Amino acid sequence: MSIDRRKFLSKSATAGAVGAGLAFPMVAKAQQSFNWKMTSAYPKGSPFYFDGPGSATDLAKRIDVMSGGRLKIQVFGAGELVPAFEGFDAVRAGTVEMNHANSYFWTGKTFAAQYFTAVPFGMNFQGMNGWLYDGGGIDLWNEVYEPFGMVAMPCGNTGVQMTGWFKKEIKSVADLKGLKMRIPGLAGKVYANLGVDVKVLPGGEIFPALERGVIDAAEFVGPYQDRRLGLQKAAKFYHTTGWHEPATVSELLINKAAWQKLPKDLQAVVENAAAACNVISEGWCQKANSEAMEDLIKNQKVIAKPLPDAVIKALRVETEKVLAEAVAKDPMTKKVHESYMAFKAKYDRWSGYSEAAYHAKVRG
Ligand code: CA
């Protein structure tokens, strides 16, 4: 240790002793501790969502460590405390302080919530982060939840998903007519407009339904999660790419009254832990999906193919119609839609010079 450093330490120790009386009330406030509960829309043990890098349990661990144990969060899987899709109501009522899910589960409460998870033909991970963190996205998210007494922030991302699994290859728009497909949410409405017989099934029921022919096709997430359900054993055509979910955001939903009781430093801990999980979970998905995709193609005879251009074009036309209808019905959806699309237009132009140009010219 250098002499200067020793002198400095000795001076600060003296200053600390003299100032201790004054500092005490601040220390007492700073050391106030909190025990919170967080529910998840996904079952205990689900990779990415519940366990593993950037998941709900990882988020709770990071908050515990970063807060020096002053904010402890007990995490509950779907069905443990409340059913999978009742986290919104539980946080709103204050039964739990937090919920970990995706905001598009709440479109029945407020349609604008769709935009904070994924928009079909919308932005990728980079663009979405740009809008959320720096383009006013998170502020709008909080505005949408204001009437419900909640705040929200991103805390995970799957990256681009896959179109899904098909027993027969899709070669034209006509092949979609009468196709029985598991596909939830807004994308389901788009497919329905093109004649798809849309089925909404929870994750665990997809494989048996596809295997028995109750459905002809199914969308879930991407190579790692889909392989875990065994979907490759029930259908061989794996269409790409995730036009419907180009970067699916995980949502950390927080009761606003509970949030306002947290000291500023603990609020910062939550925000920083959630931002870390947003990046870390997406990184994990890239690794897990690269490995799973290779295995599916090399070892499990899966045929991965992009949807034909004509099908993509038809899906895009229908998506625009479905979004226009939603915008016409609800002023808040209109406000969020306009912010999202204005950011996207700029991001798309920039991306044309950067990401897209890189992929087209360098990556091939
Ligand atoms: Ca999906």
Overall description:
The chain is α/β, with parallel strands linked by helices and 364 residues long. 51% of the residues lie in helices and 14% in strands. It has two domains: 171 residues, Bacterial extracellular solute-binding protein, family 7 (D-Maltodextrin-Binding Protein, domain 2, 3-Layer(aba) Sandwich); 112 residues, Periplasmic binding protein-like II (D-Maltodextrin-Binding Protein, domain 2), CATH 3.40.190.10. It contains 13 helices and eleven strands. The strands form two sheets. It has a six-stranded mixed sheet with strand order 7-6-8-5-9-11, covered by helices on one side. Strands 2-1-3-10-4 form a five-stranded mixed sheet, with helices on both faces. β6, α6 and β7 form a beta-alpha-beta unit. α5 runs antiparallel to α12 and α6 crosses α11. The longest helix is centred in the last third of the chain and has 36 residues. The N terminus is likely disordered. The structure holds calcium ion. Calcium ion binds next to loops.
Briefly summarize what is shown.
The chain has 364 residues and is of the alpha/beta class. It has helices spanning 3-30, 56-66, 87-93, 125-134, 137-145, 185-193, 203-212, 223-229, 256-261, 264-299, 309-329, 331-353, 355-363; strands at residues 34-40, 71-76, 98-101, 150-157, 164-166, 180-182, 197-199, 217-218, 237-240, 249-255, 303-306.
